[in-house]
Write a structure and sequence with these properties.
single chain, alpha/beta, Rossmann fold, 11 helices, globular, transmembrane helix, membrane, Receptor ligand binding region domain-containing protein, ANF_lig-bd_rcpt
Length: about 250
C-alpha cells in the first residue's frame, strides 16, 4: 500500500511522493493511545500483507521501547474468501486465553476484520476487548453494519483529511478534450467512450467514482447523471470525504 513505511526509503524509491502519511505515524499514534490508558499488556492482530506485516514490525519495536508486552500475535489471512470461519474463531479463542490483555490492536482491511467481528459474536466475546483500529477498516461500513455491538467502543487512527478547495469543481470539469496533457486520464475514460456511454458529464462522474471505496454500491449506468446529481449526489459527496490529500498534525 502507498502508506507502507518501506516506501520512505529514498534510495529504493527515489521518485515516490506521498499524498498520505506513512503508517509509521499511525503506529506511533496507536502506541500513544496505549500509553495514555496505562496499558502494559496488549495483543496484536495484523493482516498477512505488506500493510499489516510492516505495521506489526514497527509496533513490536515501539511497544518494546515503551516496556509494553505483547500477549498474543495473530495473522489475518489477506483474502477473506480463503480463510474459514474456524480460522477466525481460532484467533478470537487465542485472544481469550489472555484475559488480562483486553486491548487489541487490529491492523487489517475491512473484509477480513468484518469476518473477525462475526467470529467475536460466535465465540461470545462481544464486549470483552477494546479494539484499536487502523485506517484500513475502522471507518468502513462493511465492518460495522451487522457488527454494531462487536465494534462498539473502537478507537481508530485515521489520517486527517481536508477537502482541497476548488478540486471538486476542477475535476468534474475535466474532459478528454481539455485534459490531453494527462495520458492516464485519457486512458481511463477511453473504454467508456468506446461504448458510447452518455455525455462527458457521465465520463467525469465515472472517473470520480474510481476513488470511492469498493464497499459502496455500484454506480448505476442505465442513464447519464443529471446536473443536480453531479453536484450533490450522495456518492459524490461521500467521495469528497475521501480526500486525496491528507495530513497528520
Amino acid at each position: 500500500m502507498s502508506t507502507s513505511p518501506e516506501l520512505s526509503n529514498k534510495q529504493r524509491f527515489e521518485y515516490f511522493t506521498r499524498t498520505i502519511p506513512s503508517d509509521h505515524y499511525q503506529v506511533k499514534a496507536m502506541v500513544e493511545i496505549i500509553k495514555m490508558f496505562g496499558w502494559s499488556y496488549v495483543s496484536i492482530v495484523y493482516e498477512e500483507s505488506n500493510y499489516g506485516i510492516k505495521a506489526f514490525e514497527e509496533l513490536e519495536v515501539l511497544l518494546g521501547k515503551n516496556n509494553i508486552c505483547i500477549a498474543v500475535k495473530e495473522k489475518l489471512v489477506k483474502d477473506s474468501g480463503v480463510a474459514s470461519e474456524g480460522a477466525y474463531d481460532s484467533i478470537i479463542q487465542h485472544l481469550q486465553t489472555k484475559p488480562r490483555a483486553r486491548g487489541v490492536i487490529i491492523f487489517g482491511s475491512d473484509q477480513e476484520v468484518a469476518e473477525m467481528m462475526r467470529a467475536v459474536r460466535r465465540c461470545n466475546a462481544t464486549g470483552i476487548f477494546s479494539w484499536i483500529g487502523s485506517d484500513g477498516w475502522s471507518a468502513r461500513d462493511l465492518v460495522s453494519i451487522g457488527n454494531e455491538l462487536e465494534v462498539e467502543g473502537t478507537l481508530s487512527v485515521q489520517p486527517q483529511a481536508n477537502p482541497v478547495k476548488g478540486f471538486k469543481e476542477y475535476f468534474l470539469n475535466l474532459t478528454v478534450e481539455n485534459n490531453k496533457r494527462n495520458p492516464w486520464f485519457v486512458a481511463g475514460t477511453t473504454p467508456v467512450t468506446e461504448l458510447e456511454r452518455g455525455s462527458n458529464k457521465l465520463l467525469r462522474t465515472s472517473f470520480v467514482f474510481a476513488f470511492i471505496p469498493a464497499y459502496l454500491p455500484p454506480v448505476p449506468r442505465a442513464r447519464p447523471c443529471r446536473e443536480l446529481e453531479l453536484q450533490s449526489g450522495e456518492r459524490t459527496e461521500r467521495a469528497n470525504r475521501h480526500s486525496l490529500v491528507t495530513e497528520i498534525e
